Amino acid sequence: MLFPCAVGTFFDKVTRSCIPCPLNSYQSESGQLQCTPCPNIGRDEPGVTIAPGARSAQDCKVRCPAGKYFDSKAELQCTSCGHGFYQPNKGSFNCLLCGLGKTTRTTEAV
Asked: Do 72 and 54 lie in a common domain?
């Protein structure tokens, strides 16, 4: 039985509605009852998605360590946050700015 849900979503039997795939999963086919978890990428850890509703495994990105972020424009992809920025969580797509007048000792502060 097919459900009228688009790629990147799944049919929730409880709410009887189409819901975007949760973070770190995707759905590349329409009319499905569940999403597929991101495959292992890089360090044998599951990939991460930047937002809900991923439509393919290519939307899953490497889970960068804390102190770095995934940069789709960079050749290395996991980029150091730089002085004045930090990231305490792994698998992030941006870094956090230190408070006014503050900086970090390293370029990979957590």
From this structure: no
The two counts, helices (H) then strands (E), for the chain are 0, 10
Residues 6+ apart with CB under 8 A from 98: 84, 85, 86, 104
Residue with tokens 């890089």: 42
Domain that holds residue 87: 64-110
Query: Residue 1 — very low, low, confident or very high, per pLDDT cuts 50/70/90?
Result: low
Would you say residue 20 lies in a domain? Answer: yes
In this structure, what token pair is assigned to residue 7? 């790629």
What predicted TM-score, i.e. pTM, was given to this entire model?
0.84
3 part of a folded domain: no
Amino acid at residue number 57? A
